[in-house]
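In the design runs reported in the main text, the only information available to the sequence generator was the tokenized backbone. The following block is the verbatim input for one such run; it is reproduced so that readers can re-run the procedure and compare outputs position by position.
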């Protein structure tokens, strides 16, 4: 059983336990401070990397987190454990600094590693001189070294042989939504705007039902590409309604293939959309 599966089982047990009992182990407190599922996934992975680097044992992140905190809070003068957590983090950040110098990671990524450790220790009541640690970190850029794609580049991406690529690219380029918006986008969230019987644009409800919900607009071209994608699914045998996900997994119609069923749609999550666009870029 993988460590990720064990962690999920432990998390579920904590949720399903009596509501009068509040779990306050270090790992649970760390997860409590992370709002977004995506952020939680990234931060737990980075914390796991830290534990691997300093050799913290345990069969799950719950056990490893407790082992780290128990040792960090021990005031054994002979073993000098009061300084152990500080020196461990310094060694780990120095390792990441060397990776930054080799251009394996960016200074921004290095800062994210630092923030994860700081958050974990703060939620576990482990006091450390964070200003002393942060002084040794390289300054990160406050803006991304990127640019908007040109029309020619977008046209080239659209040549990628996947029926979903045009609907995805047209929608994102037209609306400016982030890739995470696909996790919430259903057909009922796309509302066409007509003038003289013709669709001239469409309203897009983004992150529907969430605190960050807002609306934007897409062009008629983007709406038409979405409609083509939906029509292809219907003609292939899928029952598409207002509550269907806009993006779904692909399927094969040839005999001998087992990739997906048109009658059993599975939502294409934001990670899948991101991977699809990256494949098209490469």
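Verbatim output:
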């Amino acid at each position: 059983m993988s460590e990720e599966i064990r962690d999920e089982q432990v998390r579920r047990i904590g949720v399903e336990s009596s509501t009068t009992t509040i779990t306050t182990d270090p790992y649970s407190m760390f997860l409590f401070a992370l709002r977004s599922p995506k952020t939680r996934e990234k931060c737990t992975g980075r914390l796991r990397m830290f534990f691997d680097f300093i050799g913290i044992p345990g069969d799950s992140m719950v056990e490893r987190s407790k082992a780290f905190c128990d040792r960090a809070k021990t005031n054994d003068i002979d073993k000098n454990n009061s300084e152990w957590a500080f020196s461990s983090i310094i060694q780990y950040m120095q390792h990441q600094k060397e990776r930054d110098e080799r251009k394996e990671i960016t200074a921004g990524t290095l800062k994210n590693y630092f923030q994860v450790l700081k958050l974990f220790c703060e939620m576990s009541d482990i006091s450390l001189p964070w200003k002393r640690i942060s002084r040794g970190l390289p300054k990160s850029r406050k803006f991304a070294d990127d640019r908007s794609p040109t029309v020619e580049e977008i046209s080239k991406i659209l040549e990628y042989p996947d029926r979903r690529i045009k609907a995805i690219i047209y929608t994102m380029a037209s609306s400016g939504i982030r890739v995470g918006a696909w996790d919430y986008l259903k057909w009922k969230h796309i509302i066409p705007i007509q003038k003289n019987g013709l669709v001239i644009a469409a309203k897009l409800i983004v992150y529907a039902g969430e605190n960050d919900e807002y609306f934007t607009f897409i062009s008629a071209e983007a709406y038409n590409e979405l409609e083509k994608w939906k029509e292809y699914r219907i003609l292939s045998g899928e029952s598409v309604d207002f509550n269907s996900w806009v993006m779904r997994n692909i399927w094969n119609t040839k005999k001998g293939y087992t990739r997906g069923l048109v009658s059993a749609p599975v939502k294409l999550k934001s990670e899948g959309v991101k991977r699809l666009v990256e494949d098209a870029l490469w």
